[in-house]
Amino acid sequence: MTIEQLYEIYRQYPSVQTDTRKLKAGDIFFALKGPNFNGNQFAEAALAAGSAYAVVDEAPATPNSRIIVVADVLTALQQLAKYHRQQFTIPFIAITGSNGKTTTKELVHAVLSAGYKTYTTQGNLNNHIGIPLTILSVKYDAEMAVIEMGANHLREIASYCEYTLPTHGIITNCGKAHLEGFGSIEGVRKGKGELYDYLRAHNGTAFVMWDYDYLQSMSKGIPAVIKYGTIEAADVQGAVQQSEPFLTVAISKGATLPVIHTQLVGAYNLPNVLVAVTAGKFFRMPDEKIKAAIESYTPSNSRSQLIEKNGNKFILDAYNANPTSMKAAIENFAGIQANNKVLMLGGMAELGAESLQEHEAIIDLIKQHNWKAVVLVGGDFMKLDHPFIKMANSTEAANWFRDQLFNDTYFLIKGSRSMQMEKVLG
């Protein structure tokens, strides 16, 4: 079956699913394979559960007109997504970077949705499966699409661009994340820079944080560069007016919305707010709608959340962590005025040969400030000598936390996804 033929079926049944547990009647089930599962084995069950069709790459013993056999299911999914993408002439805005991708995606989506029918990545579906699913969720009434792209090795962003076909792009930053896959900070810049490479080759537009010299350099040659930042050369200029408890941003250039009162914790969210303002202005959104959209956005899913519970305050930033984001979170927390502050930090994953050194650097940073207590959980924190409390995992940390009977205490809870540090709060 050709992609064109498959697309005609998709037009009749425009809902795609790869997980039989989430199937709805009328879905097309794509039977993906992985190291520990084989979706082909669930094709019949998917049809019995109401799927219109099942796409497989292992022919069933008994032919079935509702089972479509392709050479490779994942490739077919990606090719179908590209074909669907090619039906649109609207802006497709791709977002990648080491830190802040999801928050930036949510803010840009919030702003653009105030004036356009905008589709975006749900949750963290930002990989080789999630991105095609996101594209295929874009309906024909779309006026904008915002696509998040994660990556942990070279050529990954380039491969996503081949079927996302972005017209606009944002690289939030290039920090010390996924060093195991990228090899070095230079590898991170090269990998994330594949988005700029695509925009450069396809007459695209980049929104660039102009404070970062490396992004200035990386973006050279892109036909249209829209600058944001804290410096005078930016098209949209802003600064932190206040960061406690929530970030307040003062806009001094590029928009007539002097102050934005966000519900985000941390001065490190400033670039995320500025690029949302910049995208809104670029796409002719009224200033008052930009301001209202950003101010009404509430973070969720353990990303820079401020939670008040049982007489204590918690900055829950436990969705993920790398050396760059961990350093920013600790420094932001150190600047908060509070008498009793406790750090509960989980280990950082995917740092390769640099891991012990990077964990040591975080320990050195912690030692520069005064804390009521510091709990370091799992990962390479367990392999290093330090004067702080060691816990093997988040379950142990949660038990310790409950036993302390804290009151009037401020906490920063952060760690890599594998550490599941949100368990501390139960």
TrEMBL record:
Biological or metabolic pathway of the protein: Cell wall biogenesis; peptidoglycan biosynthesis
Keyword Cell wall biogenesis/degradation included in the entry's annotation: yes
Top-rank taxon: Bacteria
The protein's enzyme class: ligase
Tagged with keyword Magnesium: no
Domain Mur ligase central, chain residue ranges per copy: 95-279
Protein residues bound to ATP: 97-103
One Gene Ontology biological process: cell division
Primary location recorded for the protein, binned into one broad class: cytoplasm
Keywords: ATP-binding, Cell cycle, Cell division, Cell shape, Cell wall biogenesis/degradation, Cytoplasm, Ligase, Nucleotide-binding, Peptidoglycan synthesis
Catalytic activity line of the entry: D-alanyl-D-alanine + UDP-N-acetyl-alpha-D-muramoyl-L-alanyl-gamma-D-glutamyl-meso-2,6-diaminopimelate + ATP = UDP-N-acetyl-alpha-D-muramoyl-L-alanyl-gamma-D-glutamyl-meso-2,6-diaminopimeloyl-D-alanyl-D-alanine + ADP + phosphate + H(+)
All copies of domain Mur ligase C-terminal, residue ranges: 303-380
EC identifiers of the protein: 6.3.2.10
Gene3D superfamilies: Mur ligase, C-terminal domain, Mur-like, catalytic domain, MurE/MurF, N-terminal domain
Location of the protein in the cell: Cytoplasm
Leader sequence residues: none
GO molecular function, one term: UDP-N-acetylmuramoylalanyl-D-glutamyl-2,6-diaminopimelate-D-alanyl-D-alanine ligase activity
Entry GO CC: cytoplasm
Domain Mur ligase N-terminal catalytic: 15-83
Family that this chain belongs to: Belongs to the MurCDEF family. MurF subfamily.
Alphabetical list of HAMAP family matching this protein: MurF
Function: Involved in cell wall formation. Catalyzes the final step in the synthesis of UDP-N-acetylmuramoyl-pentapeptide, the precursor of murein.
Name the UniProt record assigns to this protein: UDP-N-acetylmuramoyl-tripeptide--D-alanyl-D-alanine ligase
Upper classification of the organism: Bacteria, Pseudomonadati, Bacteroidota, Chitinophagia, Chitinophagales
Gene this chain is encoded by: murF
